[in-house]
Amino acid sequence: MNEIKFVKADGSETTIDSTIADFKASVKFTTDDLTSTEYVQLDEFTDETGAVSSMIVITLFAILGGKLSNENRLPVNIGFENFVDLMVTPREAGSTTIEALKYANTIPFKNSKSIKTKFKLISGTLPPGLDLPEEITGTKLGVDGTVFDSVDVFKDVWSINKGKQFTFNQESIFNSKVEFLNIQPTTGLFVGMGLQTATDHSRVVDAVSTYVDENDVTRTKISVPYMVGTVDSPSALHYAKNTVYDERGALTQSKDSNFLGQLKTTAGTYTYTDTSLTTDTSNIQDEITRDYNFVIGMYNGDTDALLAQESFSIRVRQNFDAVRDDFLRTSGLSGQKKYFPYLDVVSNYKLPLLKADGSSTFITMTDNKLKVDNTEIITTDGLLSLLLISGSASNITLQSV
Fold first, then answer.
1. pLDDT single digits (tens) 285-341
2. Terminus-to-terminus CA distance in the chain, angstroms?
3. Cα–Cα distance between 395 and 205 in angstroms, integer?
4. H/E element holding 320?
5. Which residues contact 34 (CB under 8 A, 6 or more apart)?
6. 38-47, 107-116, 336-345: lowest mean pLDDT where?
7. Side-chain-side CA neighbours of residue 57 (13 Å)
8. What are the b/e assignments for 244-262, b being 16+ CB within 10 Å?
9. How far is it, in rounded angstroms, from Cα 41 to Cα 362?
10. Which secondary structure element, helix H or strand E, spans residue 96, and what is its range?
11. What is d(CA 363, CA 178) in angstroms, rounded to the nearest whole number?
12. How far is CA 3 from its chain centroid?
């Protein structure tokens, strides 16, 4: 809450709580009988001579604390709706992923006391890799940077540095489940039922439930363990998936409407139209998010006097690509390195266009394809290649959806 100091006619002082919007302060006034209240904006007043004077000169942060969301939004759907947290960056990731996972936030402020403004952490800590500028001019405080995977961010069980003992919980992989969706028929299903996939891999059903699909239709699904066996001798489930690839062999977001997988049981054959791989983390004691809480102080650039302070927080979310890298490296294994934002797998772009009347519009390009009548023009990582009348080539950079 912001406070405004008033000097009474007798020379004594009092403070009144205020609310701030667009750097303008408003104070709540209540009638004598306490039956109604009104917010009055305090920006200027007219004195007895008729002259207009500034009543209050404000020095403050424009936002009243709280969580600082990432303004550098991830260009892909990573499974979280409206994802605004800071995502850890794997140390072995390439430049595209590092750039995409950078954190950025701008805190507006106003300083009426000095041209230059200094900022310091009064308490708490920032995530490793983020820093505050020591002194700036202007009215925007930028908090940005890259947080690489390290034991300084999460516990040793997630990451490993030189000289640290690696204690990654290998058994967590056994928490993964395969869900077979839209099971038909829906009768005769029960927990403990044995089944076989088309590749003769066997599992025991551990859950039968319903869900509502994208068309608001209630469907039936069953769940089975993805991994069985032991840590030293694990066995992953092989099963048919509803996946569609384009001409380049890249995975698309499309589904095959004619796909029908089969599961054999002692009660007969069941079919499914799609699958989902999920992981239950409720029994994993390791952190997957961490909130960094801190207080930023705004200081006079000339005198170092404290002008205002506010409490903020940034939520850091673990990147399981980084966990995988650590596990493979410390186990003496290797694997294909795929990282966020998977731009070479599934990407949607839009082609900006200018109409004859001067207004703008765009065409959505799904799975890196621009469809014109019966022709599909394939783009490459957000670039649309065109051949000009002169015979030379030109690229148009597309916008991420």
1. 456 788 999 999 989 889 998 888 889 999 998 887 777 776 666 666 666 566 654
2. 38
3. 52
4. helix 320-330
5. none
6. 336-345
7. 7
8. eeeeeeeebeeeeeebebe
9. 42
10. helix 95-100
11. 36
12. 35
pLDDT of 168 > 60? The answer is no
- Tell me if 128 sits within 8 A of 137, measured CB to CB: no
Alpha-carbon distance of 396 to 170, in angstroms, equals: 46
Pairing mode, if any, of strands 66-67 and 306-317? parallel
Amino acid at 281: T
128 phi and psi angles, rounded to 5 deg: -55, 125
Dihedral, CA atoms, 222, 223, 229, 234, nearest 10 degrees?
120
Enter the pTM of the model. 0.51
pLDDT at 108 over 80: yes
Which residues make Cβ contacts (< 8 Å) with residue 115, sequence separation at least 6?
137, 301
Superfamily of domain 66-159+288-330: Immunoglobulins (2.60.40.10)
Burial class (CB in 10 A: 0-12, 13-18, 19+), 79: exposed
Match 């030109």 to its residue by tokens: 394
For 334, the 3-state DSSP assignment is coil
Tokens linked to 332: 């003496």
> For position 51, what pLDDT does the model report?
65
| Token duo for residue 113 | 């006391």
Q: pLDDT digit string (tens) for 169-198?
A: 555 567 788 999 999 999 999 999 999 999
Q: Which of 240, 314, 247 is nearest to 274 (CA)?
A: 240
